[in-house]
Amino acid sequence: MAVHRVTDPADPRVHEYTSLTDLALRTRREPAEGLYLAESEKVIRRALAAGHRPRSYLMAERWLGDLADVVAAAEDEGVPVFVGEPDVLRALTGFHLHRGALAAMHRPEPVDPVALVRSARRVAVLEDVVDHTNVGAMFRSAAALSVDAVLVTPRCADPLYRRSVRVSMGTVFQVPWARVDPWPQGVRLLQRQGFTVAALALTDDAVSLDDLAADPPSRLALVLGTEGHGLADATVRAADLAVRIPMSGGVDSLNVAAASAVAFWALRPHA
Q1: DSSP bridge pairs for 223
Q2: Most buried residue among 8, 31, 75, 102 by CB atoms closer than 10 A?
C-alpha cells in the first residue's frame, strides 16, 4: 500500500488542506480552485458513491485499515494518499482530525437550475441562509423527507463547504442542487416550470401549514429565508402564497433548519 508521509505542515504537496478553520479564506479559495473537502470515512464514501472524483487523501495512519479499499483504489488511479502524525495534521489543518480522514475532491460542474427542477415535485429554496451548519442540516432533512431538489440563492452559504458537508452526513451529494441567479427573479423561473411557490413567512395573510398540507399542489417549491431577517419582502411578494407553521407556547418562529424539517415532512408527496 503506497502512501506518502507528511512530516512538515508546510509540505507543498498538501497545500489544499491548509488553514481549514479560516472560513473566509476557504470559502473564497475552494470554489476558485475547483475543490471541496470531505471529512470522515462516511462522508468520503458517500462522495465517492455519488461519483465525485478525489484529488488526494489525508489521514492519520490508524485509518489506513478502515479505508483500505479506498486507499487501494486511489493507488490504482494515481491519487496520492498522505499520512501524518496527529500533531502534524493539527498544525497543517488547524484542528484535531478526530474523524480520522479528509479527502480533497474535485468540485462538480455547476448544474442548470431549470434542468434540475424539470422532473421534480418538491423543491426547497434556501434564500441567503448563511450558516453552514443550517445549510447542512437542511440538506439532511431534504434527503430524508422526499425533497427532490434544492436551489440556493447567490448569497447562500456553500453546500460543499466542509462543515455543511459534515453536518449533512454527505447528503449534499445525494440531493441534487444548483445556484439560482439572479434572485428573487428565480421565483418566476419556478412558476414557469409549473411550481406553486410558497414562502415560509409570518405575514398577515399566510396560510397555515396544516391547511396547505391538507391539499398540497402537485408541484411545490418552498422558500426558506435567512436566519435573522427571514425572507426578503420582494421574495414574499413574488411567491404565490405565504405559509406559516402553527406555533404555541408563546414562540413565534423556529430556527430555519428546524422549520425546514417540519415543513418538508408536512408537505412530502404521497404516492
Answers
A1: 125, 199
A2: 102
